[in-house]
Write a structure and sequence with these properties.
318 residues; alpha/beta; four-stranded parallel sheet; 12 strands; six-stranded parallel sheet
Amino acid sequence: MNTISLFSKSLIAAAASLLLAMPSAQASAEKPRVALVMKSLANEFFLTMENGAKAHQKKNSDKYELITNGVKDESDTAGQIKLVEQMIISNVDAIVIAPADSKALVAVSKRAIDAGIVVINIDNQFDAAALKEKGITVPFVGPLDRKGAQQVGDYLAKFLKAGDKVGIIEGLPTANNAKLRTAGFQDAMKKAGARVVGVQTGEWEIDKANKVAAAMLSETPDLKALLCGNDSMAIGAVAAVKSAGLTGKVLVVGFDNISAVAPMLKDGRMTATAEQHADKLAIFGIENALKAVKSKAPIKSLGGVVETPVDLVVGSKK
């Protein structure tokens, strides 16, 4: 009898504990889960983005949970698609994505939307035609790359004269922001009367850009400047200029304002870059995602562009 009594008391205690735990578990389940899917975390820009997002979540831990993921390199489109698929299976409430490819990530984003997940596009805008083909709209939260690149190009133009030859090293051609930055550089060079003698991809990477820059300098000995679509490629270009013995004679500009280029701006190896606030960019996307989740607006009704700041950062050359 005592054994039965003790067993019954144990069951009652366990049931009570379970009931007490249920509201807490329910509250946790009601807290939105946001997935931040980035490009390569080997790129300081995205590492800064991730750190900014984590710091924001820590300050707002009562409001949402955060999952962060990145791929091995800038061109790992397949890996990024797998990350989004994993987030769909995990049934997150929102995905904030900086796509490696403006077209290739649209189909998997549609699958996320069809599953009831809010998708917010940051950094690199999805291709409009690809979105239309899939019948979806996705809000874009980020800087206007063409305008930002033109700012950098306009500043560079102060040190050029009409007819000067320049080269452009762009990111992956499948990325919209790569195309837009190249277009912004071209806008500025056209206005200045400078001649763009070549546009080649450095695939967002230091080593690839170094090889491209070295080839451009060899092919065009009187080249006056290299305009790079991100700072990683600018670092590669600076090294190529140094190897060619042309430091101070061939100007280099970039885009992103990562901390690694600060010494290069200070000593004149780089002329300018653009600050698009990597630490805040994901936060802008996350905050818009949380608003959409909270409003419970139909996912198909979401869309439009939320412009974020991009500022010119100049070096010591005056």
